[in-house]
Automatic annotation (TrEMBL):
The lineage of its organism: Bacteria, Pseudomonadati, Pseudomonadota, Alphaproteobacteria, Hyphomicrobiales. Transmembrane segments: none annotated. This is Putative transcriptional regulator. Signal peptide: none annotated. InterPro entries: AlpA, Prophage_regulatory_activator.
Length: 62
């Protein structure tokens, strides 16, 4: 994680990528989306990891 990275909630991930939580967790299980980082009982994602995933998908579609 870099100094400009931060942890984001599932709701933030959903807003960013436009998918429901069930689909996000299916993709995680299939190794197609970044795994969350557990903080106690909470799951958070690295903003940079989600942005990198989005960039990879955009580049693959181009």
């Amino acid at each position: 994680m870099t100094a400009t990275d931060r942890f984001i909630r599932l709701a933030d991930v959903q807003d960013m990528i436009g998918l429901k939580d069930s689909r996000i967790y299916q993709m995680i299980k299939a190794g197609e989306f970044p795994k969350p980082i557990k903080l106690g009982a909470s799951s958070r994602w690295s903003l940079r990891a989600v942005e990198a995933w989005m960039s990879e998908r955009a580049n693959a579609a181009a």
